[in-house]
Specification:
Layout (H helix, E strand, L loop, with lengths): L5 H34 L18 H18 L5 E4 L6 H17 L2 H15 L2 E21 L1 H8 L4 E14 L5 E25 L4 E3 L11 E9 H6 L4 H5 L10 H7 L17 E11 L8 E8 L4 E7 L5 E4 L13 H27 L3 E3 L6 H5 L15 E3 L6 H19 L18 H40 L4 E5 L2 E5 L9 E4 L8 H22 L8 H14 L14 H19 L6 H66 L3 H22 L5 H9 L7
Antiparallel strand pairs: 1-15, 2-4, 2-10, 3-4, 5-6, 6-7, 7-8, 8-9, 11-12, 13-14
Helix pairs in contact: 1-8, 1-9, 2-4, 2-9, 2-12, 3-12, 9-11, 13-14, 15-16, 16-17, 17-18
Length: 717
């Protein structure tokens, strides 16, 4: 295929843009306009003169009830989007990219962007956010005096310096040889121009966004883009020739009903200073189209800048990624545009409005019924006077009779409650989810209220998950634009410390995780779950130590931080020290060293000591148990030993008594013998006494025995 000419490119781009715009104007825009009217309190019902004009604001109420919950879901976490490393080499980059992306998001007004995107998704089918790098030329004026020739040459040699005024002065002076020498000095006013860039995130009004009719997503679309209005002078400042800009047709704002609804009044497309052509509004279109300009058969994404309502191509270049992120609450499978929350309840707003008008009309007719009048008998001017207490003059009593209107408004109120129930079932937005007191729900049990809240939270969770896909795309764009454009000499506060970051070295293909406050449980249930999780983490640490392989210090800190976030405290660093992989590794090493030191009796740090103390408590408890068991056994053995000793002592006393009796008997026998026998007996006595002393530990009173030996013999003994 041949290379496309500029004329071919112009024709292809204009045709593609016009086709996409026609599709939006004919199919999508009418639905968006109708949704906006209903949000503003409009209905399709015809109004009858003299009847109630009340309008239900069901669409607005539902949208405003859903938006705070959805916003809280995303903003309940300081890092609701987290980049995850593809490999070990991306761990530090992922942490830095996560902190940097959230810092940029908050810096450039991310809350407003998210609020607008969610609002547009709830009302107009889709919310669009755009991310790009904006570069501006900054000019500053400086004054210099008494510059030498060399200094002046250095100053003007800078291409970014433009001389505004220049004056020189010559003074004659005498050199060392007495010769007159000119001394030249310069006074200058210069303008120093330099470029300054920053990442920008902004919401795109749905009426300014277009996409091809068969698109399933932005990435897969044939063409998509953004058309807005700028001053003609802005295009000149962007570098486009003045004569080219002057030939561009202006704007079609006068025909843009959706934009007129947004601003609430007719917009003049020719607004600006009539005497200043630079303020003329011109349509500027930024289109991203897949086109085969090179003729190699492969369409490549290109960025086109077009001006005017005829979409004149001003510039184009190959592009790598679209700058748009789309947000949906109820996407249609296999299509770009889904349904909005407003579309689900617009018919209900009509129905509720009709019922309300009927109720009010019935009340009005009941309070001020129509009259049956005999005009010949009354003054008609008096009848037509509706002032309270006014008199009707009549020639005959009974000439004016009220026509009774039955009061049915009371029986109609349950119908309103039924309609509210249908809306809650459709949308998941109930009175409870909108913050009303539980007492506002009549005849509602605690169980029923809990089930209603869970059902509501379930539908909101689905909406949040759908919106989360848009958040992933948005942060992916932030990462991509930062890698390509952000300066490499930045300092970022990460984990309580300022560290240098260089986005250009980050991996743009890093994965992402959405950390949003999804779930149907109550806050107290979540708090209890976090508390239980932290206790389990502590037990794992106490049982298996820091190297347990299951729970890290970072994970324990995350549990504490989430507990604070659940209580409404977003800045966990204020209460718990930040934890980075480097800090965690260092602390783990320190704890291992301190643990070894603690075993040797050396001082340790509080964290290591706490861990050692926990192990000591476990050992002490075991030791106390063992001691108690040993003491019980020892007490039992001691009692048995004492009993045995008592028995043994009793036996010894018994044996000793028998031995003494034997000695006494032998003594009596010896008393009857002769003196030699006594002497021998005395020796034997001493020997036996020694034996008794050695065997039983009991001494024998030998002197007493000897005294008895000396006693005279008694007959019969």
């Amino acid at each position: 295929m041949p290379h496309m000419t500029e004329i071919d490119i112009q024709g292809a781009v204009k045709s593609a843009i016009q086709s996409a715009v026609d599709y939006i104007d004919s199919q999508i825009a009418p639905q968006q306009i109708r949704a906006q009217k209903y949000f503003d309190g409009g209905v399709d019902l015809q109004h009858e003169e003299g009847r109630s004009k009340v309008v239900s604001t069901k669409v607005r109420d539902i949208v405003r009830g859903a938006k705070p919950s959805l916003m809280r879901i995303f903003l309940s976490n300081d890092k609701f989007v987290e980049f995850t490393p593809k490999g070990p080499e991306d761990v530090q980059s992922a942490e830095q990219a996560t902190v940097y992306a959230h810092w940029v998001f908050n810096k450039v007004g991310g809350y407003k962007v998210l609020n607008n995107a969610i609002h547009d998704a709830l009302v107009k089918k889709v919310g669009i956010a755009k991310v790009w790098w904006n570069t501006e030329t900054i000019a500053k004026t400086y004054n210099y005096e008494n510059l030498s020739d060399d200094e002046m040459q250095v100053l003007v040699s800078n291409d970014e310096v433009e001389v505004v005024e220049h004056a020189q002065e010559v003074e004659m002076s005498m050199d060392e040889f007495g010769m007159d020498m000119p001394n030249v000095t310069h006074s200058m006013t210069v303008t120093h121009k330099y470029e300054e860039g920053e990442l920008v995130i902004d919401g795109v009004p749905p009426e300014e966004f277009f996409i091809s009719s068969n698109a399933k997503s932005i990435k897969e679309s044939y063409i998509h883009g953004h058309s807005t209005e700028v001053f003609a002078g802005d295009l000149v400042a962007m570098g486009y020739e003045q004569d080219v800009v002057d030939q561009l047709e202006g704007s079609d704002t006068d025909d843009d009903e959706e934009k007129q609804l947004r601003f609430g009044e007719s917009i003049d497309a020719d607004s600006g200073n009539a005497n200043d052509p630079s303020t003329r509004l011109v349509m500027l279109t930024e289109a991203y189209m897949r086109i085969d300009i090179e003729g190699d058969g492969v369409p490549v994404l290109h960025k086109f800048i077009c001006g005017g309502t005829n979409y004149e191509v001003l510039d184009h270049e190959a592009w790598d990624v679209s700058p748009f992120a789309d947000f949906h609450v109820d996407p249609e499978p296999h299509a770009f545009y889904g349904r909005s929350l407003a579309e689900l309840v617009m018919n209900d707003q009509d129905t509720t409005t009709s019922v309300l008008r009927g109720i009010l009309d019935n009340v009005a007719l009941t309070n001020s019924p129509r009259l049956e009048v005999n005009e010949d008998m009354v003054e008609m001017d008096d009848v037509l006077n509706n002032e309270i207490g006014a008199i009707i003059r009549s020639e005959q009593i009974g000439s004016v009779n009220p026509l009774t209107v039955p009061f049915v408004a009371g029986s109609t109120l349950p119908a309103l409650q039924y309609l509210d129930m249908l809306v809650e079932e459709k949308t998941g937005i109930s009175k409870m989810s909108m913050g009303l007191n539980a007492d506002a729900l009549q005849n509602t049990t605690a169980t029923g209220a809990a089930l209603t809240a869970q059902a509501s939270a379930g539908q909101l969770e689905v909406m949040a998950r759908n919106l989360a896909e848009g958040m992933k795309t948005l942060f992916k764009l932030i990462l991509d634009v930062s890698i390509k454009n952000s300066p490499s000499d930045q300092m970022m506060r990460i984990a309580g410390e300022f560290v240098p970051i260089d986005p250009s070295v980050w991996n743009s293909d890093m994965d992402m995780e959405i950390n949003v406050g999804l779930g149907t449980g109550k806050e107290d249930v979540k708090a209890m779950a976090l508390q239980s999780t932290f206790q389990t983490q502590q037990q794992i640490w106490q049982t298996y130590g820091p190297e347990n392989g299951l729970v890290t210090m970072s994970q324990m800190r995350n549990t504490l931080a989430d507990s604070l976030a659940l209580s409404g405290f977003k800045n966990a660093d204020r209460y718990y020290a930040p934890m980075t992989p480097q800090i965690e590794q260092q602390l783990m090493a320190d704890m291992a060293e301190k643990s070894a030191q603690a075993v040797e009796g050396q001082p340790s740090d509080p964290m290591a000591e706490a861990l050692i103390q926990a192990e000591q408590i476990k050992a002490q408890a075991k030791l106390q148990g063992d001691n108690m068991r040993m003491q019980g056994k020892m007490q039992g053995d001691q009692i048995k030993m004492q009993a045995d000793m008592q028995v043994k002592a009793a036996e010894m006393q018994s044996d000793q008594g028998r031995e003494l009796q034997a000695l006494q008997l032998k003594y009596r026998e010896l008393k009857a013998g002769d003196d030699l026998s006594r002497d021998k007996m005395n020796q034997d006595l001493l020997v036996e006494a020694a034996k008794i002393l050695g065997q039983y530990g009991t001494s024998v009173d030998v002197e007493r025995v000897r005294a008895m030996q000396a006693m005279p013999r008694i007959e019969g003994m």
